[in-house]
Amino acid sequence: xxxxxxxxxxxxxxxxxxxxxxxxxxxxxxxxxxxxxxxxxxxxxxxxxxxxxxxxxxxxxxxxxxxxxxxxxxxxxxxxxxxxxxxxxxxxxxxxxxxxxxxxxxxxxxxxxxxxxxxxxxxxxxxxxxxxxxxxxxxxxxxxxxxxxxxxxxxxxxxxxxxxxxxxxxxxxxxxxxxxxxxxxxxxxxxxxxxxxxxxxxxxxxxxxxxxxxxxxxxxxxxxxxxxxxxxxxxxxxxxxxxxxxxxxxxxxxxxxxxxxxxxxxxxxxxxxxxxxxxxxxxxxxxxxxxxxxxxxxxxxxxxxxxxxxxxxxxxxxxxxxxxxxxxxxxxxxxxxxxxxxxxxxxxxxxxxxxxxxxxxxxxxxxxxxxxxxxxxxxxxxxxx
Length: 385
Hints:
This protein is an alpha+beta fold and about 375 residues long. It has nine helices and 19 strands.
C-alpha cells in the first residue's frame, strides 16, 4: 500500500529496536531524512560514570531569532513478551488503518510528523526567517542523564538560543487535538527504613517489631493532604509503591521493614520543601525510628504561562483538527522539564491510550493529522500564508 511520508518515516523508525539506551540505527534514519531536507546535523554522545553512553542528535536549518525547536526521543521502553503482541513489536506492521509497534505513539510517529512538516515547510518557503531545529535524545525513557539536559548545555555552548519549543509527547487523550500540556507536575521518590529486633512471635517482649511502626507511617503519609492544588495543577499526591520485610516465616518477627514511595507535586512545592514536610510527618508518626532517603530530584514542577505561544499552538491545533485543546498539566514527567529553563515549552502529540502497552499503535489518520498540526504551527510561527 502507498504510505504517506510521515507514516513511512515512523515505520522506519519503529523498525529500529531502540530500547533505552540502545539507538539501533534510529538516529541514523532520522539524520538521513533531515540531511536530505537541508538540515545541518550533529551527533553527540554523552557519558556519565555509572550510566550508559547515550547518542543524541541536534539538527538545524536557518538562523534565528525566532528559533523554534522540536524536542523528542527515539528511545522506547522494552516491549515485554513479544509473543503476546499482535505483531512483532519492531516490525512496523500496518493493519486496520493503524501502525503497530513499540514507539508508534510514544513517540516515533511524532518525531516523523514534525520532520516531514519541517521538510515541507522549508521546501515551500526556503529557509525560514528564523531557525528550526531538532533536539532528539535516546535517553528519555531511561535515567535522563545523558540526554536532553546535556544536549541543551552543549547547544548553549555553541551559541544556540531557543525562543520556543514543542515536545512531541503523546498529549491527546481520546482524540487528536483534545489536550496539550503547558506544564508538568514534579516527581520526588524516597525510601524509608525502620529497624527492629528479630525474635520469636511467642516472645514479643524480646523483640521489636518494625511492622506496626511502618503501618502507622504508611497511613500517615498516605492520608496527609499536602495541598488543595493551584491555578493550573491538581493536588499533590503521594503513593507507596512497595512495602517489604523480606520475611517468609509466619512465626518470626522481622528485623527490618522498608518501603518506597513517590509523590507527584504541583508548583506550590520545591523538592527541598517537600523533603522537609515528609520528614516532619514521619517524625510525628514514628519518632526517630525511621530512616528516610530521597532520590535526587531532576523533575521539578513547571508551567508555561498561557500567553502568545500557547495561544498560537492552540490555534494551530484547532484549525488543523477542529478541536480546541484543553490546557493541561496532568500526566507523568517529560524532557520538557529540562527545556523550560531555556525557553517556553508546550507538549503536543498523538493520543496516549496505548503507550508503554503491549500492541502499542497509532492511527494512520492521526499521524497524518499530527503532521498537519505541526505544519500549521510552523506557518503561524513564521507568519507564512
